[in-house]
Amino acid sequence: MRIILTELSCRDFAKELASKKPVPGGGGAAAMVAALGAALNTMVANFSYGKKKFIDIKHKHEELINRGEILRVKLIDLVDKDAEYFEPLSKAYVMPSSTEEEKALKNETLQKCLIDACSAPMETIEFSYDAILLHEEIANISSKNIISDVGVGVQFLKAALNSAYLNVLINLNSIDDENYVKIQKEKSEKLVDTGTKIADKVYEKVVTILNQ
């Protein structure tokens, strides 16, 4: 029976990650880091909500809280989704391939599992990018006392973005469907490139504010 990774304590999750087991791996770790990055945005919005300085824009903080919570839940769910899709892939790699029939079945199974396994890190990229945009918004409407958490959150999301991209690439490298590979590569590359640039700008803004 597969462990529900998101029900583990922090200590036990790290222990499972360190073990010689197929899951959790880099994909699940990336999703977990992204969820933490999104959570930090919501924390900053929660602390800023209703403050006298920002009373006229409390509706904006409320909006960011709601959007951030949706992303946090989606990202934390991807930790288990990544594991769910990777296990069949690891089994497909060791399927017998002595005969032509076995080779054909193995390849057919592998191709399906590879596409499934690619979907979780692709979603991690998409949701991490969306969460980076939230940090871009909150950076302008949070107090200096908590602005460091915006910098931490956006760095987490940048790391998750680039980490998930590696997991996309390693799966795409073995997928035969050239059109699928082309579409996913172009989509992921654009999100990673743009998201990284935005994250860097937000981080630089935080550093500038803290150095004032």
Please explain how this structure is put together:
- Helix 2 runs parallel beside helix 4, helix 4 runs antiparallel to helix 5 (147-172) and helix 4 (100-138) runs parallel beside helix 6 (178-210).
- The chain is 78% helix and 0% strand.
- The mean pLDDT is 95.
- The protein has 6 helices and no strands.
- The protein has helices at residues 10-18, 26-48, 58-92, 100-138, 147-172, 178-210.
- It is elongated and about 75 Å long.
- It has 212 residues and is an all-alpha fold.
Using brief descriptors, characterize the structure shown.
mainly alpha, 212 residues, single chain
Kindly summarize this structure in a few lines.
Helices cover 78% and strands 0% of the residues. The chain has six helices and no strands. The radius of gyration is 20 Å and the shape is elongated.
What is the strand and helix layout of this fold?
Elements: H1 10-18, H2 26-48, H3 58-92, H4 100-138, H5 147-172, H6 178-210
Helix pairs in contact: 2-3, 2-4, 2-5, 3-4, 4-5, 4-6, 5-6
